[in-house]
Amino acid sequence: MRDLLNEYFDDVRVIDTATYITHRQTHFAEKNEDFSMFDGYQSLAIVCLSFKSDQVKLGGKGHGIVARYAYGEDYHITFQKRFAELKEAALKQGYHIEGKADISPVDERQLGLISGLGFIGYNDLLIHPKFGTYMMLGTVFIQEALTESVVTIDDSCGDCRLCIDACPGDALSTEGYIENKCLSFKNQMKLPFQLDEVKPFKTMIFGCDICQRVCPKNTNIHPLTHPEFDPDGAERIDLAELLTLSNRAIQRKYKEYAFSFRGGLLLKRNAIMLMYNQRLMQHLDLIKEVYNDYKHVPWFAQTVELIIKDMEASNESRRLIPA
């Protein structure tokens, strides 16, 4: 079974299910987790697929780009294809498995930590010795018992503070990660923002890669080649063009991409925040049109209304300046 897992994924670690449950009960007892999902499964495999760290250029004002993990085919789709093939192949060997990627209560980073796939850095990401942070994680539930010796990664961030100092939301520290300050978390949430919360969003329409780009552990990494995750043009988005599309049209256009799962209106909200910070005053009328269409949606309207008022005030100030 171990060899079979290696055929489908770039790296694999296996532990018994009881070890993971004990770890959660010991270190995260306050969460009061339901572990019934593990009933009937004796082993857990944490699997990963690596991807390149290269990032497309913004393309000038008027554009936004998505986080690197969202380039190419939605990794959920990629994993599900591989899980389906793996399940069939495993059954022929007498193993019964179920694969899940980012859609179960399993804390995949913690599973990766205790199984020896990597260590968790100050950026709250699992850091692999060969792939750095540039990998996607999945979990394979295995009914049968698989025994493997676990060797944890002897590495850490040490005295490095590069990601802490570079984080635009002050979400990182040596003491832990503050989720509600993270720009990647915030621009994926349907929440209203004040203007001071809007101002850090300048180029990223979905996600944020800053803590990965500055991390020394991401130098000299060696991701494997997976064409599914290569840039194909969709990762650079024309902001004004996006606002002219209906939410349904956005979903149709980007349905195969991970950045579309939160819906078209969230991308429009993020596009308007980028337009505001890129000072694209020529698109104020377009922003107003979109606002009028969706002013009944509180989290969208409350943010965009503040942006419109500030852009109008800026226009008025410029008009009043003597020639």
Essential attributes:
three-stranded mixed beta sheet; 14% strand; 11 strands; elongated; four-stranded antiparallel beta sheet; single chain; 13 helices; 323 residues; alpha+beta
What does the model show?
The chain is an alpha+beta fold and 323 residues long. The protein folds into two domains: 2-52 and 73-142, no CATH class; 169-207 and 233-320, no CATH class. Helix content is 38%, strand content 14%. It is built from 13 helices and eleven strands. It has a four-stranded antiparallel beta sheet with strand order 1-2-7-4, with helices on both faces. The model has no long low-confidence stretch (mean pLDDT 94).
Strand and helix layout:
Blueprint: H1 2-8, E1 11-16, H2 17-27, E2 43-50, E3 63-66, H3 75-92, E4 97-100, H4 108-115, E5 119-120, E6 126-127, E7 135-142, H5 162-166, E8 172-173, E9 176-177, H6 183-186, H7 195-198, E10 204-206, H8 210-213, E11 236-238, H9 239-244, H10 247-253, H11 264-277, H12 284-294, H13 298-320
Parallel strand pairs: 3-10
Antiparallel strand pairs: 1-2, 2-7, 3-11, 4-7, 5-6, 8-9
Summarize the structure.
The chain has 323 residues and is an alpha+beta fold.
Number of helices: 13
What can be said about the biggest beta sheet? 4 strands, antiparallel
Write down the overall geometry: elongated
How far the N terminus sits from the C terminus, by CA atoms, comes to: 77 Å
In terms of DSSP E residues, the strand content is 5-15%
- Give the integer mean of the pLDDT values: 94
Query: Which percent bin holds the helix content?
Result: 25-40%
Please tell me how large the radius of gyration is: 22 Å
- Structural class, please? alpha+beta
| Total domain count | 2
Q: What is the strand tally?
A: 11
User: Strand order, biggest sheet?
Assistant: 1-2-7-4
Write the H/E string, N to C: HEHEEHEHEEEHEEHHEHEHHHHH
Low-pLDDT residue intervals, each spanning 5 or more residues = none
